[in-house]
């Protein structure tokens, strides 16, 4: 029994896409090729993860273009799983999308030297330069997800751009989890998700999600189809191993619908 299928209606629950950036970060600190990025992805998929995510940044601080090509080859052996490549489409992302045609491209408005992703697109201001790139991805058969702050008013613009989904940037929620602002943050994300769904968009979520905050988020925010989780999951895997860690995150997702 697939732990992600809701027994009631057998509808698929939220998919878990493991971001393996941080495996590559550790690998890059020696010229030994370990830990292997592709082996990490394979072990996560074998344990039940529904996808793999990478964010090949222009400075190749972690995921390198060669990793992306090797992961695409691996993913071909997992037809039920999805490959999600994140990046700024005005930088290095589109060459990889054109060459590999992943299931999903997640457009992220990061600068080349940004420490980590910390904001979504500004719409409609960014729409003019994004629209042709969204259209190109769709012509290639690649789903487009736009990395967005939880602003309900921006969701219709995202839909007008032709995006298939938005990915809600969840760091503000994660930072508030367990504190007095948690409920207010969850309400923000609930409103943003409702606006996205009303505009015909799918809803993804990611950034700083972990075993502690994931279930609360999925219980409160409707229609989340995919969470992409990397930093905390890989940190957990250093203690528990990839397989048990993935199974624990899948349990966190399944608990959200009980
Ligand atoms: C877009 C986002 O929030 C993350 O997917 C991003 O991949 C994090 O990048 P780093 O792993 O380089 O912090
Ligand atoms: N899109 C979010 C992602 O892929 C991983 O973010 P994080 O869990 O490393 O913060």
Automatic annotation (TrEMBL):
The active site is at residues 55, 86, 207. The record marks 167 as: Transition state stabilizer. It catalyses: 3-amino-2-oxopropyl phosphate + 1-deoxy-D-xylulose 5-phosphate = pyridoxine 5'-phosphate + phosphate + 2 H2O + H(+). Keywords: Cytoplasm, Pyridoxine biosynthesis, Transferase. It comes from the Bacteria. Catalyzes the complicated ring closure reaction between the two acyclic compounds 1-deoxy-D-xylulose-5-phosphate (DXP) and 3-amino-2-oxopropyl phosphate (1-amino-acetone-3-phosphate or AAP) to form pyridoxine 5'-phosphate (PNP) and inorganic phosphate. Homooctamer; tetramer of dimers. This is Pyridoxine 5'-phosphate synthase.
